[in-house]
Amino acid sequence: MIRITRKVEFSAAHFYHNPNFSAEENRRVFGKCNNPHGHGHNYVLEVTIAGEPDPATGMVLDLKELKEILQREVMERMDHRHLNYEVPELAGQIPTCENIAAVIWKLLDPKIKTGKLDRVRLYESPDLFADCTADASNGSGART
Amino acid sequence: MKISLTRRYRFAASHRLHTAKLSEEENKRVYGKCSNPYGHGHNYALEVTMTGPVDSATGMIANLAELDPFVQREVIQPFDQKFLNEEIPEFRAQVATTENVSREIFRRLKSFPSARLERVRIEETSKNSFEIEDEVDEVRG
Predict the structure, then answer these.
(1) Which chain B residues are closer than 8 Å to A127 by Cβ?
(2) Is A97 a catalytic residue?
(3) Which of A30, A70, B17, B107 is most exposed, with minimal Cβ within 10 Å?
(4) Among the CATH numbers 1.10.3720.10, 3.30.479.10, 1.10.260.40, 3.90.1030.10, which is that of B4-14+41-140?
(5) Is the pLDDT of residue B141 over 50?
């Protein structure tokens, strides 16, 4: 089995706020990330596909195809957007690194027809990232 | 699908690879220049990976407002700008290789209360890295 990884970068704004918390609780739990004017990051997304190379092409999945999928599913939805207001898939969720990575996994997984989505790694900064991986405990795993 | 969160920290420390269990000549042969009696140092990068349910109220596996001070207290403050062999009691009895440093840091961090420590990864230099995972730690006790 071979793993291939493609990287893309997008820039987006967000802030953390739970409407069920009091203003004070929001400040305590989320700190400066609660600033209602929002703030932004240069997100770096690494998407890994696992599979056997096709004997005819030598490829697990044509990276050109993966690039197009990432452009359509992630870049067009999230690049230069406000994640709290402009991404319907994140509606009702706090747009943390964990939740954004999970949304990206769910967007990409059904689109990968050749090979299997193995890992989504989303860097919010060079010092913080979330990983979504196929769950080994349920076999093929990727369809959650 | 399983989610984890990884946070990266840094500390700078010195160490010397040397064990009283070996002769001076053997120490020199096994550890080479790392056994220089005055020690040497590294800029270590530490990656701490946490897993567990994403809290639906906060969207988080671990709140950095809790994780950062915990790692600071347990590891960064005691290790940063220190001579590991002398100033971390656990390395008086064992060699301060980065394998052992990883295991000691894992031991110190696994009591984090609100998420499960999955992995500790240390870059000793940009060319060397060391990883220890939950189950490995349990097997070794």
Answers:
(1) 7-9
(2) no
(3) B107
(4) 3.30.479.10
(5) no
